[in-house]
C-alpha cells in the first residue's frame, strides 16, 4: 500500500508544480487553491509512505515521479519543446526510479 500512496503522491507533485506555474505568482485563486491542496496531499502521502519505505528510496522515487510527470505535462499540455535528448533523459530517470523500487 505504501508504494501506491507514494506513486499517487508523486503524481500530486506534478499537479502542484503545474498549478504553481498557472497561479501566476499566486495571483489567480483557482490554480493557487489547487496548488495548496495538491501540495498538502503530496506531502501527507510522502510522509505516510516513509513509514515503511526507506527515506532515501522513497524520496528519490517521489521526486522522480514528480519531475518526469511535470516535464511530460510541460511538453504535452503546455507546449514546451520536446527533443530526442529530453525524452531520452526522462527515460533514464524512469529507469532509475524503477530500479530503486526493485532494489528495495
From TrEMBL:
Keywords per UniProt: Cell membrane, Membrane, Transmembrane, Transmembrane helix, Transport
Pfam families per record: Multi_Drug_Res
Subcellular location(s) of the protein: Cell membrane
Topology versus the membrane: Multi-pass membrane protein
InterPro entries recorded: EmrE-like, Small_drug/metabolite_transptr, Small_multidrug_res
Top-level taxon: Bacteria
Repressor as UniProt keyword: no
Transmembrane feature ranges: 33-50, 59-78, 84-103
Family: Belongs to the drug/metabolite transporter (DMT) superfamily. Small multidrug resistance (SMR) (TC 2.A.7.1) family.
Protein's recorded name: Quaternary ammonium compound-resistance protein SugE
Gene3D superfamilies listed in its UniProt record: 1.10.3730.20
Signal peptide interval: none
Naturally occurring in which organism (per UniProt): Actinoplanes ianthinogenes
Primary location group: membrane
